[in-house]
Known about the structure:
alpha+beta; six-stranded antiparallel β-sheet; two-stranded antiparallel sheet; 39% strand
Amino acid sequence: MGTYISVRGWVACREESIPQIKAVISSFIDKAGDYGFDASRAEMYNQGWVIPDTHINWTHYIFYGADIRIQRLSYIKEQLKTLSKEITHSEDWTTDYLTGIFHADHEDGIEGYIWKLSDGEFYEETKNDK
């Protein structure tokens, strides 16, 4: 049957960043072979992304949630790393980066991670390191 890990979290962004975010996520379909599976499987894992059509006030929230095979964890992790580095919004003399937080928990509780996106960087904390 396989071993699964539950991945869920959110990214906060500006509306102007949404097309770039969609492009980064879609670009990983062509890289599926680098992660040991095919494009149709990559499309399936990308279905975990939810980008609402509407939002309240100025911040958009994009969500990911799925139980995925543990062997595919690097596929989602690399998407998040790429998003954190490549998606920016510059206005006046400031540059805004994506912010977000994700949790990844093994189905048997033997491993877990907290991933944070902040200031153009991706941070990983092992839940046992608290």
